From TrEMBL, chain A:
NCBIfam families given in the database record: oligo_HPY (TIGR01727)
GO biological process entries: peptide transport; transmembrane transport
Superkingdom of the source species: Bacteria
One Pfam family here: oligo_HPY
Family annotation (SMART domains): AAA
PROSITE patterns registered for this protein in UniProt: ABC_TRANSPORTER_1, ABC_TRANSPORTER_2
Entry's Gene Ontology cellular component terms: plasma membrane
Similarity comment: family membership: Belongs to the ABC transporter superfamily.
Name the UniProt record assigns to this protein: Peptide/nickel transport system ATP-binding protein
Organism: Xaviernesmea oryzae
Residues covered by the ABC transporter domain: 6-246
Membrane topology field: Peripheral membrane protein
Location within or outside the cell: Cell inner membrane
Keywords, comma-separated and alphabetical: ATP-binding, Nucleotide-binding, Transport
TrEMBL record, chain B:
Organism placement in taxonomy: Bacteria, Pseudomonadati, Pseudomonadota, Alphaproteobacteria, Hyphomicrobiales
Top-level division of the source organism's lineage: Bacteria
GO BP annotation list: peptide transport; protein transport; transmembrane transport
Subcellular location, record wording: Cell membrane
Similarity remark: Belongs to the binding-protein-dependent transport system permease family.
CDD domains given in the database record: TM_PBP2
Gene Ontology terms: cellular component: plasma membrane
Name the record gives this protein: Peptide/nickel transport system permease protein
Keywords recorded for this protein, A-Z: Cell membrane, Membrane, Peptide transport, Protein transport, Transmembrane, Transmembrane helix, Transport
PROSITE patterns listed in its UniProt record: ABC_TM1
Keyword Membrane assigned: yes
Domain ABC transmembrane type-1 residues, every copy: 83-272
Automatic annotation (TrEMBL), chain C:
Biological process terms in GO annotation: peptide transport; transmembrane transport
InterPro entries, A to Z: AAA+_ATPase, ABC_Ni/Peptide_Import, ABC_transporter-like_ATP-bd, Oligopep_ABC_C, P-loop_NTPase
Top-level taxon of origin: Bacteria
Protein name: Peptide/nickel transport system ATP-binding protein
Length: 333, 283, 321
């Protein structure tokens, strides 16, 4: 079997702020295969962006490894490696240099890598603009003349310039409004199909995960607490944090509410003990048992669904799954 | 919106500010005089060593609009040639100090760490010494000449530009577009000069315009203290200082040269305000 | 209940070099005591501008503002700037849309927070202020307030920065809080929590909240009433329950259709076309070019019509009812 496109093994990243140390990422392992979308979800500050930065080479891991197509990435990245990974950032308002034209922004990777002649670059920029649903006329515009959604399209075009295999998308739609988000999600899906792109899709919107990703990695305080296929995790979340996450989704209809697991909102939480030890979620978890305070649970489960919890949520019963399926059918009909 | 129309709108906004337009007109006149001094000045030969005791110490008249000096040279002509000197001085000093200041401020802010510490410490030391004192100290080591005066002033001036650029870059370096360039593999030099520098430019130009006035003033002060261009080069500062000996009888020597300085300084200051509008980014 | 804020016929035009830009076209809305009103709509529909107009934070130059903004009995549009400044930060506060832009990367969070705190509580000494700030940060589920206070904004994640902004906005216990998309960078669990905090604040101190968001799910949970805004006017207004159960305006429906659903793994339907250019004059219904129901009658002026407690600016209502 060929190696996965991206493989992160036991990555750690520690920051020092004043006298405090922040364990932004702890022992994270994950893989992304060619052409698939892996979503990374998790609380704000759980280390998602830091993980992305490790993959992109913006930060150097304190320990652990990042491999791209079987090749270990160490020290300064070569230009060939950099071409293979593209980045789309969260904030469309800061992602483009206000003093440069759209064409210059998209052309930057070509300039840096010295690809193509002037005329070829121009053509390629025009081509990319069309690909992301803009037109060649946008080339000479300034970012300020563009809306948030258009800017995000430009950012996607820029990320595609070097024909990468992997795009790291750090909350690409969270500052866009819903209708623009729907456009961008479609665009991303079409591009994925056309170029066989793999996405590492960081988000906190589980609704988006549901429609775009095939696998999910759930992070909490720098660790992976659950991972698996979208279908498995949405059907039957096992880690208590995932359960809370799904239960918290702000839905727009009662129909959707039926797909959320319940959560004992009013239950008491003990939340004692040294937060550095044991499961980091225990301070918010009404299901915590004694062992949770002593050690971080190993990953358990199998194949396409693994989780790190001593007292996991029981699997959703067939009856409920059937009921949900039935509702879906009825809605379609 | 195309780029040219963006620029055009910048101009229109500039034009709305009446004072900046006045400033621009003043500067344009001064530049015109400076460049075409030999044709504009009524007595171009008076810029050099001319002695004409017959017409010495004449008050302003139809023949000599701004009067003559103690050896009979036309003050207006000398002021016009003086503009040349002043503008040259200002331009060279600002160019040198912007180059050094930008390089240092940019490197300190963008590279961070030890580089930042060392560079900003040096900058602060230079800032701590009063400009005139520093310039005089440097000039004290050498014969008075235009070149030394320029070097001395640039030494005094660059830390201000370094501080300015440092502040801007420090707040910009975490912006998405900087990260995006780094991720693609852009070298630090490219990030600094191609991504960050254009974002410093408007502030730098505004400051340069303001400084132009001040540098010319400082240059004049140095010449006033006898540390500028040696005679017979026409220099506004030197003219003020020489004329001062004859006050109040032959008042026009100092006053007219002083007016010349005033016009240049005022012009650049007024323009600086409008430059902000000109460079404001539009779509 | 008493109305604390009444906005009436707010009309706003910016005079730009490209000519006048008419961004608000007769916005009327009201917020009662204890009430949480949501303002939703696509980007560019004028939500933030409405908020700024209410707080008197619009640029002074080149704008024409008509209509009235009555806050606790006085019209803010005509109030003295100094008086208005006094109210801001004390009686009414705002949480801005972009925390990165509202926080200065050159000062620590502590310095900036202190500046805000000293406006509403000048009497506190350093130790009390520190405790106040820590509590406020803990309220928005920040577990290590000291570290956050020590940090610069760029050392914190987007979500942490937003929570800092929220804590700053709440610290003076304002009468009216305007929150401009306070949840964009928050994950859902923290979002729930911060909404809960804001909810609690509004219930226990009677703080009214005008809540701007494009996240319809959040709006459904948080707001009592919803105003849907499109192209500088309010096209539908209803209680939250009513709006989500029975959206009437085609725009509201389209907006709801563009939300990804848990009950389906299909990509949601985007709204085709884009928000009309505010520089162009609009005849009749602004949504007409993007609307499947549009007919020639939509070119007439469209009044807000009442259906029970629901108000809708659309002539195609009978078909739905
Ligand atoms: N350069 C840095 N210096 C110090 N601490 C940092 C730095 N970058 C991140 N951190 C800390 O690391 C932790 C993880 O941050 P990160 O930005 O990865 O979170 P995130 O999951 O992306 O959050 P969000 O969803 O809010 O964007 C946070 O506690 C953050 O404050
Ligand atoms: N100072 C200004 N001059 C000219 N036009 C302006 C100005 N401020 C805002 N506008 C315009 O007003 C319109 C409404 O902007 P506003 O920021 O209120 O939108 P919004 O609904 O808050 O959108 P978003 O969801 O993106 O925040 C936009 O078309 C914008 O371009
Ligand atoms: Mg992040
Ligand atoms: Mg807004």
């Amino acid at each position: 079997m060929s190696p996965p496109l991206l493989k992160v093994t036991k990555a750690n990243k520690v920051f020092h702020v004043g006298s405090a140390t922040v364990h932004a990422v702890t022992d994270i392992s994950l893989t992304v295969n060619k052409g698939e979308t892996v979503a990374v979800v998790g609380e704000s500050g759980s280390g998602k962006t830091t993980l992305a930065n490790l993959i992109l080479g913006i930060e150097i891991p304190t320990s652990g490894e990042v491999e791209l197509a079987g090749e270990q990435l160490k020290g300064r990245r070569s230009k060939t490696v950099r071409r293979k990974i593209g980045l789309v950032q969260q904030n469309p308002y800061s992602t483009l240099n206000p003093r440069k034209s759209i064409g210059q922004a998209i052309g930057l990777p070509l300039d840096v890598h010295g690809i193509g002649s002037r005329a070829e670059r121009r053509r390629r920029i025009g081509e990319l603009l069309e690909k992301v649903g803009l037109n060649a006329g946008h080339r000479d515009r300034r970012p300020l003349a563009l809306s948030g959604g258009q800017r995000q399209r430009v950012a996607i075009a820029r990320a595609l310039t070097t024909n990468p295999d992997l795009l790291v998308l750090d909350e690409p739609t969270s500052s866009l409004d819903v209708s623009v988000q729907a456009h961008i999600l479609r665009l991303l899906r079409d591009l994925q199909q056309e170029f066989d792109l793999a996405y590492l899709f960081i988000t906190h919107d589980l609704g988006v995960v549901r429609v775009i990703a095939s696998r999910v990695v759930v992070m909490y305080r720098g660790r992976v607490v659950e991972e698996g296929s979208v279908a498995a995790i949405f059907r039957s979340p096992r880690h208590r944090y995932t359960q809370l996450l799904l239960a918290s989704i702000p839905t727009v209809s009662e129909e959707d509410d039926a797909f959320k697991p319940d959560w004992p909102w009013d239950a008491d939480v003990k939340g004692d003990g040294d937060p550095a030890e044991g499961c980091p979620f225990r301070s918010r978890c009404p299901f915590a048992v004694e062992r949770c305070g002593q050690e971080f649970p190993d990953m358990r489960g199998s194949g396409d669904h693994r989780y790190a919890c001593f007292n996991p949520r029981p699997e959703t019963s067939e009856a409920i799954v059937n009921l949900q399926a039935e509702k879906l059918e009825r809605k379609k009909a | 919106m195309s780029q040219s129309s963006a620029r055009w709108r910048g101009w229109r906004r500039f034009a709305r500010n009446k004072l900046s337009v006045l400033g621009a007109v003043l500067i344009a006149i001064v530049f015109f005089c400076a460049i075409f001094a030999p044709y504009v000045a009524p007595y171009p030969e008076h810029a050099g060593v001319v002695v004409n005791f017959l017409d010495a110490n004449q008050p302003p008249s139809a023949k000599y609009w701004l009067g003559t000096d103690t050896v009979g040279r036309d003050v207006l002509s000398r002021i016009i040639f003086g503009f040349r000197n002043s503008l040259m001085l200002g331009a060279v000093v600002i160019a040198i100090s912007i180059t050094i200041g930008t390089a240092i401020g940019m490197a300190a802010a963008y590279l961070g760490g030890k580089t930042e510490l060392v560079l900003m410490r040096i900058t602060d030391i230079f800032l701590a010494i009063p400009s005139l004192v520093l310039a005089m100290a440097i000039l004290g080591l050498a014969k008075p000449s235009q070149l030394y005066a320029m070097i001395a002033m640039a030494t005094v001036w660059w830390p201000w530009h370094a501080r300015l650029v440092y502040g801007i870059v420090r707040s910009l370096k975490y912006e998405g577009f900087v990260v995006a360039a780094e991720v693609v593999g852009a070298s630090p030099l490219r990030v600094m000069f191609s991504e960050l520098l254009p974002n410093c430019a408007p502030n730098l130009f505004t400051k340069a315009s303001l400084d132009m006035g001040f540098v010319i003033l400082l240059g004049a002060s140095l010449s006033f203290l006898g540390m500028g261009a040696p005679p017979p080069t026409p220099d506004l500062g030197t003219m003020v200082s020489e004329g001062a000996q004859y006050l109040p009888d032959i008042w026009w020597l100092s006053v007219m040269a002083g007016m010349g300085i005033f016009i240049v300084v005022l012009g650049f200051n007024l323009v600086a305000d409008g430059l902000r509008d000109l460079f404001d980014i539009v779509g | 209940m008493k109305e604390i804020l009444t906005v009436k016929d707010l009309d706003l035009t910016f005079d730009t070099l490209d000519g006048p830009v008419n961004v608000l076209r007769g916005v009327s809305l009201s917020v009662r005591e204890h009430e949480r009103v949501a303002l939703v709509g696509e980007s560019g529909s004028g939500k933030s501008v409405t908020a700024r107009a209410i707080l008197g934070l619009l640029p002074e130059r080149n704008r024409r503002l008509n209509g009235s903004v009555v806050f606790e009995g006085s019209d803010l549009v005509t109030e003295r700037p100094s008086r208005l400044r006094e109210r801001r930060g004390r009686d009414m506060t705002m949480i801005f849309q972009d925390p990165m832009a509202a926080l200065n990367p050159v000062y620590t969070i502590r310095n900036q927070f202190l500046a805000v705190l000293s406006r509403s509580h000048p009497e506190l000494n350093a130790k009390q202020a520190e405790a106040r700030m820590s509590d406020a940060l803990r309220d928005v589920s920040i577990i290590d307030p000291t570290r956050v206070l020590d940090s610069y904004s760029f050392q914190l994640s987007g979500g942490l920065n937003q929570r800092v902004m929220i804590a700053m906005g709440l610290i003076s216990r304002p009468r009216l809080l305007i929150a401009d998309e306070p949840g964009t960078a928050l994950d859902v669990t923290v979002q729930q929590q911060t909404l809960l905090i804001m909810k609690r604040l509004s219930e226990s101190y009677g703080t009214s909240i005008l809540f701007i968001s494009h996240n319809l799910g959040v709006v459904r949970q948080f707001a009592d009433r919803v105003c849907v805004m499109y192209s500088g006017r309010i096209v539908e207004e209803a209680t939250t329950a009513e709006l989500f159960a029975n959206p009437r305006h085609p725009y509201t429906r389209a907006l709801l259709a563009s939300v990804p659903r848990l009950s389906s793994d299909e990509l949601p339907e985007p709204i085709e076309g884009s928000v009309p250019d505010p520089r162009e004059p609009i005849k009749g219904c602004p949504f007409k070019p993007r609307c499947a129901l549009a007919t020639d009658d939509c070119l007439q002026p469209i009044p807000l019509r009442e259906f029970g407690t629901q108000r809708v600016a659309c002539i195609h209502q009978e078909e739905f009812a």
